[in-house]
């Protein structure tokens, strides 16, 4: 028997304007695609009976590149008015006065509860890790955003930390988070989402103790085991094609089914799905979970606590 779904992570486009060094998007996406509005509605119909409390409308792409992104968030809220809706954006496009994108962005703010601005590093290090992003384009975006009515939407900075950008945290906090009135600086230790585990790691003790000084700004759980995995019990991850995956940590995995082709409960009841779920629930993970980056982050976060 499956629990109802309370958390949804839905990809509405896999188009992106960047190739970030820490993101495995190019490894896992299929043909480029924006989910058509009728398909998005169809998906809502298929999940509407679930008590979704929180949702992320993102995935392996830049959500704001969807040509009807504002309609997507509006429709989501039509179906789930009380769900807390989070969106992440890379801010590498123009929302200058008079542009279509500004109108769409402004409209979308009515429906988004929390917007993450993905900004990692300052100046050169930002441009290095978020290639071909430009720092100047980011500053123009932030200047244009500053004049906007946020319509109650909270906005934070989501900073993916690696050993090469630790030293920029303070400047981003002072000049970007404080300078543009963002609510919080969220520091996420870069997770290795790649299948070959090729993301370089290796922090010095000094860097770890510096990270410790950022306290609650550093996100993630320093105590976690597979039996704590909520994805297998009460979450859903869908790709732009409607494929069902288990979680956002293993987007390269073979889908368990497609929500437009097979009933969602049949997919969740399939042998493969149930095996992964049972593996986690009994703390005896299957091979599906061997690269879980939650699990990999635990010792790292513990080290930060202990230095
Ligand atoms: C995959 S992106 C999609 C949304 C959008 N394109 C963006 O960059 O904000 C969603 C979030 O995941 C973060 N992210 C990407 N790769 C990551 C990694 N290896 N570890 C932790 N967070 C990562 C991004 O910085 C972003 O905040
Ligand atoms: S992190 Fe976001 S902006 Fe960067 S490549 Fe991945 S999807 Fe694109």
Any overview of this molecule?
The chain has 307 residues and is an alpha/beta fold. The protein has helices at 25-28, 37-47, 69-79, 100-108, 124-129, 135-146, 169-178, 205-212, 231-234, 264-268, 271-281, 293-306; strands at residues 7-10, 54-57, 84-89, 114-118, 154-161, 185-189, 235-238, 243-245, 257-258. Strands 6-5-4-3-2-1-7-8-9 form a nine-stranded mixed sheet. It is globular, with a radius of gyration of 19 Å. The mean pLDDT is 94. Residues 16, 18-20, 23, 25, 60-62, 90 line the site of iron/sulfur cluster. The site of S-adenosylmethionine has 16 residues, from strand 3, strand 4 and strand 5.
TL;DR?
This protein is of the alpha/beta class. It is 34% helix and 13% strand. It is built from 12 helices and 9 strands.
Secondary structure blueprint with pairings:
Blueprint: E1 7-10, H1 25-28, H2 37-47, E2 54-57, H3 69-79, E3 84-89, H4 100-108, E4 114-118, H5 124-129, H6 135-146, E5 154-161, H7 169-178, E6 185-189, H8 205-212, H9 231-234, E7 235-238, E8 243-245, E9 257-258, H10 264-268, H11 271-281, H12 293-306
Helix pairs in contact: 2-3, 3-4
S-adenosylmethionine is lined by residues 16, 22-23, 58, 62, 88-90, 116, 118, 158, 160, 188, 190-191, 193.
Q: pLDDT below 50 for ≥5 consecutive residues: which ranges?
A: none
Helix and strand pattern: EHHEHEHEHHEHEHHEEEHHH
Ligands in the model, by name, code or SMILES, are: S-adenosylmethionine, iron/sulfur cluster
State the total count of DSSP E strands: 9
Gap between N and C termini, in Å? Answer: 43 Å
Going by helix content, strand content and strand pairing, the class is alpha/beta
So how many helices? 12
Percent helix range: 25-40%
State the strand order across the main sheet.
Answer: 6-5-4-3-2-1-7-8-9
What is the CA-based Rg, rounded? 19 Å
Average predicted local confidence, pLDDT: 94
């Amino acid at each position: 028997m499956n629990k109802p779904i309370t958390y949804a992570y839905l990809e509405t486009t896999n188009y992106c304007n960047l190739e970030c060094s820490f993101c495995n998007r190019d490894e896992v996406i299929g043909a480029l695609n924006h989910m058509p509005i009728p398909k998005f509605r169809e998906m809502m119909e298929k999940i509407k009976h679930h008590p979704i409390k929180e949702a992320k409308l993102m995935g392996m792409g830049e959500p704001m590149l969807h040509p009807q992104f504002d309609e997507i968030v509006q429709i989501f809220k039509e179906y789930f008015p009380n769900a807390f809706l989070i969106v992440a954006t890379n801010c590498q496009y123009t929302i200058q006065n008079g542009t279509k994108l500004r109108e769409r962005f402004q409209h979308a703010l009515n429906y988004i509860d929390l917007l993450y601005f993905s900004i990692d590093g300052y100046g050169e290090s930002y441009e290095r890790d978020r290639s071909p992003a430009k720092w100047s384009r980011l500053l123009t975006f932030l200047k244009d955003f500053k004049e906007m009515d946020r319509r109650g939407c909270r906005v934070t900075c989501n900073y993916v930390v690696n050993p090469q950008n630790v030293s920029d945290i303070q400047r981003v906090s002072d000049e970007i988070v404080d300078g543009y009135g963002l609510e919080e600086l969220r520091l996420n230790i870069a997770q290795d989402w790649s299948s070959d585990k090729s993301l370089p790691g290796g922090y010095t003790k000094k860097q770890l103790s510096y990270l410790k000084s950022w306290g609650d700004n550093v996100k993630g759980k320093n105590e976690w085991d597979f039996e704590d995995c909520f994805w297998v019990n009460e979450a859903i991850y869908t790709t732009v094609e409607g494929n069902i995956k288990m979680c956002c940590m293993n987007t390269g995995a073979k889908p368990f089914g497609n929500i437009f082709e097979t009933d969602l409960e049949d997919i969740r009841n399939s042998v493969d799905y149930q095996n992964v779920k049972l593996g986690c629930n009994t703390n005896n993970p299957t091979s599906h979970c061997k690269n879980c980056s939650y699990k990999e982050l635990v010792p790292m976060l513990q080290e930060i606590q202990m230095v």
